[in-house]
Design goal:
heterodimer; A: about 300 residues; 2 domains; seven-stranded antiparallel beta sheet; two-stranded antiparallel sheet; B: about 120 residues; alpha/beta; five-stranded parallel beta sheet; 5 helices
């Protein structure tokens, strides 16, 4: 999971200029990922080894993989694995910068290591118990939905739980999800995520729970259901959805957009589409996530 | 270092505006102007000519990208820093191409704000 898009990471560290970044982003859409870039990312080859194979390629009419195997840098199994595994989209951006001569392979190698370790530090380390709980929840969804969840849906749930741990606390219990046709609201906010993967999450809780939720989220003690408390519920949902769009962009090249969060005015929500109710029980109260999955995928 | 500096914050979340102000106040006491959508941000920019704008993207009425374009059209040297949770590739590209100078990914980190403030106002 990523805390920010790779391009933004490079920009904020003054590794690229705005113009160089824009040029590389344009270029990457028409370029193919190279085996050498994947091998650096997987840690199978160093930048120096990749550079050496590229030089050898200019003298031999052979593919990168063939030379890397004959030089003993990669095994056939590793080549097959690199070609079949999912390729994080941000690698293409790094490769485009190498091709433009902005950075070299060695810098790319170091940047990938730094970028991933920074984001791993920020990401929540799942305990064995939580992994079991998430797997169990995904199974429950499977039974309810009579289909397996798409990888994007699974990403959404995992990130949601990770963000709860990161911003609210890990002392929650997952209640099995259920299908939801209608729902009586307490204080309820929603936000539409639009694009190739489209979802509309709602977050609802009683006002007293909002106060404790906000106190944890903001790190200040609130005692009444004021405008900051209300804003914190919207802010959490917006932050989660925003980070989800970053991950979809970084991993899958899927560009999603968000609508502004809104407070639901209706006392009773009714749903026509596939909708799940997911209660998250904290000691201070229960958060109710309602997820409307649109059938665009 | 921020005495006499005018800072405009455009964000529909009152909480996000407060959190940003609290961080900035560690570096001095500028004059703050606050807007809760893109149109208000544009109007306040024209009225107050702030030294820097911190701008959210996903906002009602008029979003941050539209606000960047209109502000840059009015003042091509405007210092606009996007502060958004939606740091996708297309969003970053749109903001930069419209004329934003920086892009800060939410959640806010004090060091990101410090970097922005120090690089522009240190020594003032």
């Amino acid at each position: 999971m990523y805390a920010q898009f790779f391009g933004n990471y490079l920009l904020s560290r003054n590794i690229v200029t705005r113009d160089q970044l824009i040029q590389a982003m344009h270029k990457k859409s028409s370029t193919q990922i190279r085996l050498g870039t994947l091998a650096i990312h997987a840690g199978y080859m160093t930048a120096n080894e990749v550079d050496r194979v590229v030089i050898l390629q200019t003298h031999q009419d052979k593919r990168f993989g063939e030379i890397a195997i004959s030089e003993g840098y990669l095994t056939e199994m590793q080549v097959a694995e690199l070609l079949s595994e999912q390729k994080p989209d941000f690698l293409l951006l790094g490769q485009a910068l190498v091709e433009d001569g902005i950075i070299d392979n060695e810098q790319l190698q170091n940047l990938i290591i730094d970028y991933q370790s920074e984001n791993e530090l920020e990401a929540f380390e799942y305990s064995a118990e939580t992994i079991d709980a998430i797997d169990h929840m995904v199974e429950k969804f499977f039974v309810l939905a009579e289909r397996s969840l798409s990888q994007h849906e699974v990403s959404f749930f995992r990130l949601l739980l990770s963000n709860l741990v990161r911003f609210i606390g890990d002392d929650f219990t997952l209640v099995p999800p259920s299908l939801c046709k209608e729902y009586p609201t307490n204080y309820c906010v929603s936000q539409k995520v639009n694009g190739a993967f489209s979802v509309c999450p709602y977050l609802d809780m009683p006002e007293s729970t909002c106060i404790d939720f906000a106190s944890r989220y903001v790190g200040e003690t609130y005692t009444s259901f004021d405008e900051y408390v209300q804003a914190s519920v919207e802010d959490f949902l917006n932050l989660h959805n925003g980070l989800f769009t970053v991950n979809m962009s970084n991993d899958f090249s899927i560009e999603l957009t968000l609508e502004p969060p809104t407070v639901e005015k209706k006392d009773l929500l009714t749903f026509e589409e596939e909708t799940y109710l997911l209660p998250i029980v904290y000691p201070f109260g229960t958060l109710y996530f309602i997820l409307v999955l649109h059938k665009t995928h | 270092m921020l005495n006499g500096v005018k800072i405009l914050i455009g964000d529909d979340s009152i909480l996000a505006r407060k959190q940003l102000k609290d961080i900035i106040l560690q570096y001095g006491t500028p004059t703050f102007f606050e807007a809760s959508n893109g149109q208000e941000t544009i109007d306040l920019y024209k009225k107050e000519s702030p030294d820097i704008v911190f701008l959210d993207i996903v906002m009602p009425v008029k979003d941050g990208n539209a606000a960047i374009r209109e502000i840059i059209e009015y003042d091509k040297d405007a210092e606009i820093v996007v502060v958004s949770s939606v740091g996708t590739q297309s969003q970053l590209k749109a903001a930069i191409e419209s004329g934003a100078k920086d892009f800060i990914q939410k959640p806010l980190k004090p060091e990101s704000i410090h970097h922005i403030i120090a690089s522009r106002f240190e020594g003032r």
